[in-house]
Design goal:
- With 477 residues, the protein is α/β, with parallel strands linked by helices.
- The protein folds into two domains: 143 residues, Alpha-Beta Complex (Aspartate Aminotransferase, domain 1), CATH 3.90.1150.10; 241 residues, Type I PLP-dependent aspartate aminotransferase-like (Major domain) (Aspartate Aminotransferase, domain 2).
- It has 14 helices and 19 strands.
- Helix 12 packs parallel to helix 14.
- The protein starts with a helix and ends with a helix.
Length: 477
């Protein structure tokens, strides 16, 4: 069974072999799992024949007796992209649970709530009424009009339906925006910590991600002076995410105005404003759409969706709004990628926007629960010596500085060198799955998702605290 599980995890998730035992059931689970995705040093085998593959610079050939070699090399564009560590770790944790390891999964950014009943019923009715055919590529007029109404009422943004494209999730909207406006050699500014996909989206467009670090002491908010000093003639995009994944930080309007003043000086510079966590925000913090600031409508692409606030992750529904020239380009890409989003999901999306401003009572109830969980976790982790926290004002993540534990060595595990080894340690000794900060561009931290029940979080905190005891007593190496 151990060999079988090891093969399943390493092949399904794409993780490189390093020593990791998983708690007390390590004899039934893999002992060779890592979060690293560097596979270049592993031998290749053809999946069909089982024969070894020889690497020949950029060309990879499969040799079979009596047959010519088959070139199975991949596009340099694909090879430049790193797999998502959040997806890899979530898949790993799920596989361990399925193998009998009682792992608490706090890696994925997925609300634990069911989709509100009115939304689900709209989807069911769509199926029953035969609303199961293709829609317009850009989305149904009904949904795009509802989005326009939402943006006007909640964000003070005026759009027409032809300035909206509905996609299969906000992630698709984001990548289409990047591909639509970036040319090879362009630069995309990404404040760190960042959502794992932003730099990879830039690379897929043959653009260069330019990472701007932020500081925990500044609540992980971008320094306008650093931004201004980084912009060059090649800078094409600035990606902003507020509330932020992974930090939960919310950009105050005054800071956004300072950023807008800098953006206005550079005619080529556009802004992608990722507002997917807009409704998951904790008073007194408030949300400001970047496009609503003076002079920013013409150069902002606003991305939003239904996954987070409405607990609709599996419905795969998002959208982008912006000037028609750019939105038409996004629609052109979508027409060749996927065509329109699910007709059933779009009916559900109309129902979601019909719940009232900000999602109405259904979303308010979820946000209240998220806030309770946040308050519990912040209080709990602040009790641990050496841990640093910036209290999140939105989303459902904690991005916690655990770097004071680096350099310590624990018998039976080894040395805690960085966020990846700390996360492996917590998975091994505490059986809690969290994400290393290195995936988000800040190796001093780890990300914990509190999109889980308070009972689950209480159990996770106890496990983490218990696992940290040997680190607290271990001497720095």
């Amino acid at each position: 069974m151990a060999n079988s599980l090891h093969h399943t995890l390493t092949s399904r998730i794409g993780l490189r072999n390093q020593s990791l035992s998983v708690g007390p059931v390590s004899q039934t689970a893999s002992r060779s799992i890592s979060f690293s995705s560097q596979l270049s040093d592993l031998p290749l085998k053809d999946l069909k024949t089982g024969k070894r593959v020889e690497r020949n610079h950029s060309v990879v050939m499969v040799k079979a007796e009596g047959n010519l070699g088959v070139d199975i090399s991949l596009s340099p564009r694909v090879n430049s992209v790193k797999p998502s560590k959040t997806v890899a770790i979530s898949d790993l944790a799920t596989a361990l649970v399925q193998s009998g390891v009682p792992v608490i999964r706090l890696a994925a950014g997925e609300p634990d709530f069911d989709t509100p009943a009115a939304i689900a019923e709209a989807g069911i009715n769509a199926i029953r009424e035969g609303y199961t055919r293709y829609t317009q590529n850009a989305g149904t007029l009904e949904l795009r009009e509802a989005i326009c109404h939402k943006l006007k009422e909640e964000n003070d943004l005026t759009y027409t339906p032809d300035q909206i494209v509905v996609s299969n999730g906000a992630k698709q909207s984001l990548i289409q925006a990047v591909l639509a406006v970036c040319s090879p050699g362009d630069e995309v500014i990404v404040p760190a910590p960042f959502w794992v996909s932003y730099p990879e989206m830039a690379r897929l467009a043959d653009a260069t991600p330019v990472i701007l670090p932020t500081r925990l002491s500044d609540d992980f908010l971008l320094d306008p002076k650093l931004l201004e000093s980084t912009i060059t003639e090649r800078t094409r995009l600035l990606i902003l995410c507020s509330p932020s994944n992974p930090t939960g930080s919310v950009y105050p309007k005054k800071l956004l105005e300072e950023i807008a003043h800098i953006v206005a000086k550079h005619p080529r510079l556009l802004v992608v404003s990722d507002e997917i966590y807009e409704h998951i925000i904790y008073a007194p913090a408030t949300h400001t759409s970047f496009a609503s600031l003076p002079g920013m409508w013409d150069r902002t692409l606003t991305v939003n969706g239904f996954s987070k606030a409405f607990a609709m992750t599996g419905w795969r529904l998002g959208y982008i709004a912006g000037p028609k020239h750019f939105i038409t380009a996004c629609g052109k890409l979508q027409s060749q990628f996927t065509s329109g989003a699910s007709s059933i999901s779009q009916k559900a999306g109309v129902a979601a926007l019909g719940l009232g401003k900000g999602g109405g009572e259904a979303v308010s109830t979820m946000v209240k629960a998220f806030r309770e969980r946040r308050d519990f976790l912040v209080k709990s982790f602040r009790e641990i010596d050496g841990v640093k926290i910036s209290e999140p004002q939105g989303a459902f993540y904690l991005f916690i500085d655990f770097s004071s534990f680096y350099g310590r060595e624990v018998e039976g595990f080894g040395k805690i060198e960085d966020s990846e080894s700390l996360c492996r340690y917590l998975l091994d000794k505490g059986q809690v799955a969290v994400v290393p900060g290195s995936a988000f561009g800040d190796d001093s931290c780890i990300r914990i998702s509190y999109a889980a029940s308070l009972t689950t979080l209480q159990a996770a905190v106890e496990r983490i605290k218990k696992a940290l005891v040997p680190l607290t007593s271990a001497a720095l190496v």
